[in-house]
Amino acid sequence: MSAQPASPAKQPPSLWARILDSDILASFLRSKVTMVAAVIVLVLFIGAFFSPWIAPTNPFDPATVFLSDANIPPAWQQGGDPKFILGTDDQGRDLYSAILYGLRVSLIVGLLGVALAATIGITLGLLAGYLGGRVDSLIMRIADVQLTFPAILIALLIDGVVRGIFKHANREDTALYVLVISIGLSFWVQYARTIRGSTLVERNKDYVQAARLVGLPAPLIMLRHVLPNVIGPVLVILTINLALAVITEATLSFLGVGLPPTQPSLGTLISIGNRYLFSGDWWIVTFPGVTLAVLVLAVNLLGDWLRDALNPRLR
Amino acid sequence: MSFKTHCLAAVAALALMCGAVQAQTLRYANQGELKSLDPYTVNETTTNAHLGHPYEGLTARGKDLKIEPALAEKWEISPDGLKWRFFLRKGVKFHDGSDFTADDVIFSADRVRAQGSNFTTRIPTSAKFVKVDDHTVDVVLTAPNPILNAQWDTWYIMSKKWAEANNAVAPTPAAATTPSHASLNANGTGPYKIESHQPGVKTVFKLNENYWKKIEGNIKEVIFTPISSDATRVAALLSGEVDVIEPVPIQDIQRVNASGNAQVLTGPELRTIFLGFDQTRDELLESSVKGKNPFKDPKVRQAFFQAIDIETIKSRVMRGLSTPSPLMIAPELYPHAGFIRAKFDTEAAKKLLAEAGYPNGFELGMDCPNDRYVNDGQICQAVVGMLARIGVKVNLNAQPKAQYFAKVLKPGGYKTSFYLLGWTPGTFDSHNVLYDILGCRDVAGSSRGESNLGNYCNKKVDELTDKILVESDTAKRNAMIGEAYKMTVDEFSYIPLHQQALAWGVSKKVKLAQRADNSVLLYYATKEQ
Amino acid sequence: MLAFVLRRLFQSLIVMLAVALIAFTMFRFVGDPVNQMVGVDTPQEQVAQLRQTLGLDEPVVVQFARYIYNAARLEFGVSYQFRLPVISLLGERAPATLELAFMSALFSLLVGIPMGVYTALRRDSWLAKIFQTVSLVGISLPTFLIGILLIYLFSVTLGWLPSFGRGEVVKLGNWWTTGLLTASGWKALILPSITLGLFQMTLIMRLVRAEMLEVLRTDYIKFARARGLKTRAIHFGHALKNTLVPVITIAGLQLGSIIAFAIITETVFQWPGMGLLFLKAVQQVDIPIMAAYLMLISFLFVTINLIVDLLYALVDPRLRATIGAH
Question: What pTM does this model have?
Fold first, then answer.
């Protein structure tokens, strides 16, 4: 994740310093559940992003997929084929490879969407908190409106509008962008609110006042001085949002407005598998479903731990 | 207090009602919604079947699809074939109690051909309807047409008085934005009345006790609900919440049959599923080949044909429930004897492509519906894989039918390079296939080739088609049809894939006749007490 | 106080206008109403005439004003798919959605609060740990998957509960239909309510737990304990009571997202509500329904927010200054 702490600044405790200083590390080592979750997340991320090298086949390349291999059960079941450890889907794609590639698609959508949301949210939050006044109330009113609309609704609306505008566009080309934009536009408020709150506090501290007196331009102060000191809580939101974004993507794909079956994400795989739930081909829905649940669960656990660790009151 | 009593009364009334009618109530769920009750709005099999309960035509089709008399008791054709006389059934009443007469037929003939109707092809524009007396109508033609009444079973007769009184004289067009009385209410002569209609939610049909003939089934009330989710629809059947569902996803057939409380009626459907090419533009809309259209070369079309492994599609995607077809028509409607599919042969296909000047293949877009035909999306995906093996990279655009049809059909300007479509000839006759799917589209003002999306065109086929229309000698006619098909097959005009199977889920308590055109007609249904 | 109320009302109005602008833009520009009405072969003069009769040649500002005027009278145009006024379609389906939302909110409160209290009081018991894990699984499994699993288990395998629809409904008055007066209606409500309420339930449980832990740490409770009050009295009389205000506020605010998440639940269970209608509209690009749904839902949200804010102000005048930033 892109939580690169800004350069160890000259000002009072930077984030990195605080992490090392505090007993966050210790609390991490203390909690076994968190460590397991971290390992799982790591494994899933590696699996996803190195899928072209790890996966035995490339399920996105139709030339390597043979329909005659369709609906083969997992290797350990009767009728299974050792070539396909977790079995195959309705097109004959190796499910194990499809899950790795699908995981990558899901994570890319999730990460890009959350990154977009964080960028919008942090920018607006800094502006609102630092500038105050009319800018602040305008941004916060927009945030209020936005907060009332759940992500899924906004994503569906954006999708509907995009379909209306680009009537004949190929979904293979547009789906990914639509998903990222939908998630980005619907998740930014939390960041904006958090950043604004902390910025309001930081703004009046001595080091900011000093920087202002020296005559540093406002954008520089915001980015170099305020941001590193308010970013802590954002990490928590980022983590929990990633889990939410992955679920949102899966849901949209399930509802048929997400990624097409030729480039399946985890959600698309689940919705494909859902068709075969009654017919006994349980593996098509189960393995992607379990992968999704495990990923979200592990990310959530990390988020939970991070929130507790960063919240001194609970320690 | 009054509120409470009101409710209690309602509950009591409901309980009573349930007890009384439960036995002969049949609950039916279909994948699609019943959007408009106006019988001239959408020409689609499912909608036509739904509306075949409150409405009926001058003719009907029996369980074996043979033409039978309905509102017309009999008809006579003049020796020159230019005048058809229809003798109408006497004593028939519309649901509102008014009498059925020749005026209603003439009114319906005008309405069905008016602007906004989706059924204009049911009657030739030049045909004149003349009232002889209250129960006799003449149809005067400008040219003989032996299959004039072939599609009249779904040209439903409406009441003139009712339409005039309710401001519903004009048909409700599919794109209408103002509600019309006829799209929310129905007044036919059919075996069932519409009791209530909530578009997209529920429609209740009540038996018409005054129907002019005794129906085969014993159902007093039909409750129709659309359930679009496959899993939910199957679950509803398995748990006994509905008695009949259409369609059963083919992968679930075994499960339904094994359940013990329901079974699947399967049978060959008359619809042919096929792939079509854009053969008319000088450059394909979506392709890496610029400046020319590869599909104008029959070798490329043959290469595509031979690249497709239809048997694997049958065994995997269709789970054995399809009949691979060499022709664009089902064997029940025209025998396939003498025709075989070009062999599946990837190497031969590659060679053909190389000969045509594409040794490394090319890239192109493909359009496909994903909720219209049995496993249509999966078939297209499989085709993409098979074409990839001969070097053709296909960008698949699979969409819900509404958007798909809006793009590829006539109103959308035929915007497609390569597509999947299904076709059942409405007349159950080869002429319809030769005229609509294989006819040249280039004559302005003619409806020939309207569904020939890629505009495959061979004037010789057109000439034969015109002769076939007026030929009344069956043997000669069939020979001519065979000749026409032969030409289109030799040129690889299309890639016919298969005839899909019908799959209706029916509760063990219900007996139902399955018609091969996939019309679910519940007046054939009997349910055990 | 009056000034605050007026300001808040004004703000809500601005919000609604902003939403109306979005809805109008969708209605007018994304789904050009004329293009939906005519065929490709309609002559140009006829198209122009149609534009004129619909007032589409007037300045956009005038059109927007007319859209708002119509929206205020609940006239949102006609659905492309059903050829019926959008408002009658939405009105017909609103009771289904509202009943479902209400039942699942009730479920999430009735189950979530006790679970939250328990996990806070018995932090280290194994049952609390199970609750915690279950709650995490609850937010980790997508709603649609939960729905499918419930259908598979309770409708198909066990055959206890219906898999779709509302069961038998009773008409109350002219426009309300209810499933709460029949046995089959109640049965039909169970699975969808649980599916829809599970996510909120875990939220509430976690919220109650966090709030309880917080409150239990305060001096006020310590003081009560020091005074020798019974543990039970402290926990339920003081701690829980103090927890409930924020919980109920959040639950109120969450009503909006319950209605939005109903889209998924209604799709899985074929529940004839507004969410299913909206999803179909998105799939079919039925812009009038999408625009109207947006307007109605935002009106609902804005109203709920307004009421919550005003109640807060009424209860705690100190909050007035910071309202809007909870």
Answer: 0.80
